[in-house]
Write a structure and sequence with these properties.
alpha/beta, six-stranded mixed β-sheet, 14 strands, binds adenosine-5'-diphosphate, binds magnesium ion
Length: 313
């Protein structure tokens, strides 16, 4: 069974750096597929090769049966792209920006104006359509950026971290917007380094790190990779010493431990059982403990389990 997007052995070198390393995945029609990985994992490079913006060093991508290498124009017609950087003209209004993009996709006349109306409605910004983009908040710009990517009803939408750096309200709006797209039968490739978003949205997920797919499957399949382990999440000082982390790793039952900002996360076979040991190890090391909780395995714990690193930056 072949998917609407088939990524085969996709590879990109920048000099000596292997940014994307033999990546393989297949996305079924109508699926929301997540590409989850930390900054620098190769998500944008992958998306750019699928959309034809970057030439692969190796491998190929088929979109609805067309090769991005040999039939780039046919591939482009099937795709909508929401880039990581907002691509809008600040001095034009939201409507004018969407009209511009619509024309780029070959829409004209009535078809164009109804596509623009529909996209504004979906972005929840129909009433602000006459305002210049420069007056928009970051979140509103992102919503229009997404609207621009779906004007021409693409079969497949590529979204590159569409919620980075925006307010929670716009973020929720965007997540609902993407869920709504699935209802309309669109296929979505969604990249993010936020595991909550990917958990909320995606039918299947590929976890990427250093250009490689390190795990792939449904949320349930991925959670099973961690077995029955729990995550113990401890609020600590950002100045937590490396030796304290080593002490936590030595607590019986602790499989892995990592700190990101002011959160220490430990993977433990029995989180409740290991909790007391972790807290006393931290106390003995002279570290402050601000909060503590035991949570069920999630994509964050899968990532920690597979890489020994935290997904957050
Ligand atoms: N044009 C480029 N030239 C050289 N290195 C690049 C270029 N684009 C990306 N990289 C490098 O490739 C790796 C993957 O980058 P990227 O695909 O942007 O990751 P992500 O989107 O997951 O944060 C990083 O190490 C990045 O520094
Ligand atoms: Mg990126």
């Amino acid at each position: 069974m072949s998917g609407i997007v088939e990524v085969n052995g996709l590879t990109k070198l920048f000099g000596d750096l292997v940014a994307v390393d033999h990546v393989e995945f297949s996305i079924a029609q109508g699926e929301i597929f997540g590409l989850l990985g930390p900054n620098g994992a190769g998500k944008t490079t992958t998306i750019s090769m699928i959309s034809g913006l970057l030439e692969p060093t190796g491998g190929d991508v088929l979109v609805d049966g067309h090769s991005v290498r040999t039939e780039p124009r046919a591939v482009k017609r099937k795709l909508g792209v929401v880039p990581q950087e907002v691509a809008l003209y600040p001095t034009l209004t939201a409507r004018e920006n969407l009209q511009f993009w619509g024309r780029m996709y070959g829409l004209r006349g009535k078809e164009l104006s109804s596509a623009v109306d529909e996209a504004l409605e979906l972005a929840g910004l129909a009433d602000r359509a006459r305002e210049r983009i420069e007056k928009y908040s970051g979140g509103m710009k992102r919503r229009i950026n997404i609207a621009a990517g779906i004007l021409h009803h693409p079969k497949v939408l590529l979204m590159d971290e569409p919620t980075v750096g925006i307010d929670p309200q716009s973020r929720n709006h965007i997540l609902e917007q993407v869920k709504g797209l699935r209802g309309s039968g669109m296929t979505v490739l969604y990249t993010s380094h936020y595991m909550e978003e990917v958990e909320f949205l995606c039918d299947r997920v590929a976890i990427v790190d250093h250009g490689k797919v390190i795990a792939m499957g449904t949320l349930e399949e991925l959670r099973k990779l961690v077995g029955d382990a729990d995550i113990v999440r401890i609020g600590v000082d950002e100045t937590l010493a490396e030796e304290s982390l080593v002490a936590v790793r030595a607590v019986p039952g602790v499989i892995q431990a990592e700190r990101a900002d002011s959160v220490l996360e430990a993977l433990a076979a029995d989180g409740g059982g290991a909790l007391a040991g972790i807290i006393s190890a931290l106390n003995a090391a002279g570290e402050k403990v601000h909060s503590a909780e035991v949570v069920e395995p999630n994509l964050e714990s899968v990532f920690l389990h597979l890489t020994g690193k935290s997904l957050r930056d």
